[in-house]
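Researcher: Last one for today. Full complex below.
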Amino acid sequence: GQQVMQIPQYQHVQEGEDFTTYCNSSTTLSNIQWYKQRPGGHPVFLIQLVKSGEVKKQKRLTFQFGEAKKNSSLHITATQTTDVGTYFCAGLTGGGNKLTFGTGTQLKVEL
Amino acid sequence: ETGVTQTPRHLVMGMTNKKSLKCEQHLGHNAMYWYKQSAKKPLELMFVYNFKEQTENNSVPSRFSPECPNSSHLFLHLHTLQPEDSALYLCASSQRTSGAYNEQFFGPGTRLTVL
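Model: Here's the assembly. Have a good evening.
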């Protein structure tokens, strides 16, 4: 079945450093979504990418969708303590009726 | 507050008990989902309901029985669970348009412990 892997599994950074998480799918995706889950919370939708090579920005967050639509990345510039949490990518395949979540990257930001 | 509520928030049950988890969405969405989130594992999709019809059963054991009486309510009936079923159970909803599912809105989850 489809697998969606993320690396790294964990990342500790100092506040102000940049952070990147990478998402790789075993199959071509129709689109990809990113979610953030704060400690003790539930996943919250961040963004959806649909087009090959698409790049979207939300303030300090930059999202990319690979040309082959099999990988994606999330980059955070100058991390803040509010960025703490686990970031999940989630890929939609085929007719877009099944969302497969990645393994997640847990981000910790230290002062 | 995402517009998706779940009760109870915490549940402790024995392996012989029968209990139910409830989810309600106030967003007017037409699709609802059950996910299981265990420590050190990715979110696992369990069931998908589209317009009250089950469209996905991700090889879930029969001790988990979903019910969707209408597009706003979703239940997960539990019976004879195992300790390894202890996890956070998340409900989500989304609006399906043109054959694709859009962003999902998650509820706060039910933390289940099976003794």
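The CA atoms of residues 65 and 72 of chain A lie 4 Å apart. DSSP finds no helices and eleven strands in chain A.
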